[in-house]
Structures
1.
Amino acid sequence: MIERTIQIDAPPEVVWRFFTDPARMARWLGPADLDPMPGGELTFQLTDGPGLVVRGHFTELRPYEKIAFTFGWEPTPGVPDLPPGSSQVEVTLSAQAGGTLLTLRHTSVPPNLAENTYTGWAGFLHALRAEAANV
């Protein structure tokens, strides 16, 4: 399991929108197509790197507290072997003085992809922190 925790200088309501609004998700991950409801599709193209596309489905949404979705790469030559829906991401948001404590857990990641996935999330969460603080 991959786990990252960061403090964001924005309330949970603002951070939540960066996972459920395509325009805001595009600001920290890349162009997104989202249907933020349980079973709704989630697709985004990472702008950091060779244009990798992530596909999954939302599995749980508790406003301003939790977002969970399946995660995998759209099959493309040279893309890591992690098919759409084969791993799970859970994001919890907790109000803290002056902002939000965000914890991301990514499970079912093959061991050979764990280090790159951990590093990737670190970079993207850093971008999220910067974008959310500027709202």
2.
Amino acid sequence: MATIEQRKAAKRAQIRAAARRLFLDRGLGATSTDAVAAEAGVSKRTLYAHYPSKELLLQSVIEEILAGPGQRGLAMAAPLPEDAPAFRDALAGFLRAVLATLMQPDYIGLVRVVVAEIPRMPGLGEMLRETVPKRILSGLGRLLEHGQTRGLVSFSSLDAAARMAIGGLLTHVLMEGLLVGDGPPRPPPPERVDEIVELLLQAGRPSLAQQR
């Protein structure tokens, strides 16, 4: 027999699934809480008990999309890389996970929904930044900091280095994801990530004096 917490979790999942379908089909502004409750087969009281606002519901839907295998790949490698080959592999694995996360069709669809509503609801922009971009930059920054501590790379600004690497991926997300209107996102070939990693490592190659 399901526990109270299990039943609550199942109800939240039921509501999220309904909201996800409606947000992607209609957009945020055109999706009322009445519509979500009806689609989920729950009362508005039950809906508000789990999600007091439509914005919190949207955030939960986005978090669920990002909770798959790609997002788990955004965690720091364990054990942490101690040599150059392992560090290169860790960087490539992290960036591939970023690309897989950001190229999910439903994530692309919800980003479009959020961007369309930001002028009317500015808080949505900050919510989206906290949910993905800041998390990605922070994770890559920690990995680069670890590499710098071990003398594997040397950057005058770890933040700038992280943004340079992520920026190389975001051009694909923008041009082959957000701006594609006639089908699913078109991820770049796998070797593109390797090229970005090599450019990053070349930019952060320690000087001979630092290696001594």
